[in-house]
Amino acid sequence: MWETINYYLHNGPVKAEIIESVLMVVGILLLRAVILQAHFRSHPTMEIEDKRRWVVATRNITLIMVIFGLAIIWAAQIQTLALSMFAVAAAIVLATKELIMCLSGSLLRSMTKQYSVGDYIEVNGLRGRVVDINLFNTLMMQIGPNQLIGQLSGKTISFPNSLLLSYSVQRDNVLGSFVVHTFEISVPIHLDSDKIVPVLENVLQKKCAPYIKVIEKYLEEVQLEKLFITPAAHPRISRVPFDDKVYNLVVRFASPVSKRLEVQQAVLDAFIRVQYRLMNHNGGQEEAHGHDKPVMPV
């Protein structure tokens, strides 16, 4: 008889796991009912609240036992299903890796408030003003193409938000409507910086003078509100050695965002004029020395 039952369980239309699961659930429910009835009969004066606690406790224990028993009975099938689901999940992750990274970058940008629409940013050499942001990419109007040109080129640049996970973001207008701007000018080593820097400083002071007091007050308010050290508002030009052919002038100034290009271009124009005068002055001196030579009679 047992051989017949065993054969039916393994080869019949109904799988053995289903029958075992049904018997296990029925057995646990009967056991719970017997235990509750026996306990209530042995404690006839038990309060309603205590009986309710026993019912709830035995129900939760029964549920745990059923789940544990089903897990044991269906262990082989669960393992096969888990492996299949893991393979499918791995395939989905590999196929959508870039999309997941873009979503992660978008989440990072939202949480850290790195930039928003209207900000001037630079990411991995891409410079521009942000015009649109979605879950997958950022669209901005290109600035440049030359590093010293801060005007819009008329072209758009779109980059995936996954770049935010790998590269740092430089934001120009972190101080709101004002900006502390820095750029470099490469100067031929034979040109005297003492004849160049005073001229550029004069131009820089004239251009920045109307805004210095307003910017200083604004930076003090930002420092008190956000509790971080703000840069100085006064313009400055520093001289930095580079190599045996050129040295760099590092120009730094504070201005309204809308005026920074005007100030920068004024300094560049002044430098070009001074450089032209100095280089032609040297050439003119050499030419003048050439005319001083005595002319031999024929």
Automatic annotation (TrEMBL):
The keyword Chloroplast does not apply. It comes from the Bacteria. Its main location: membrane. SUPFAM superfamilies: Sm-like ribonucleoproteins (SSF50182). Residues 103-140 form the Mechanosensitive ion channel MscS domain. Keywords: Membrane, Transmembrane, Transmembrane helix. It is found in: Membrane. GO terms for cellular component: membrane. The chain crosses the membrane at residues 18-35, 56-76, 82-103. Gene3D superfamilies: 2.30.30.60. The keyword Membrane applies. One of its GO terms (molecular function) is mechanosensitive monoatomic ion channel activity. InterPro entries: LSM_dom_sf, MscS_beta-dom_sf, MscS_channel_2nd. This is Small conductance mechanosensitive ion channel family transporter. The lineage of its organism: Bacteria, Pseudomonadati, Pseudomonadota, Betaproteobacteria, Neisseriales.
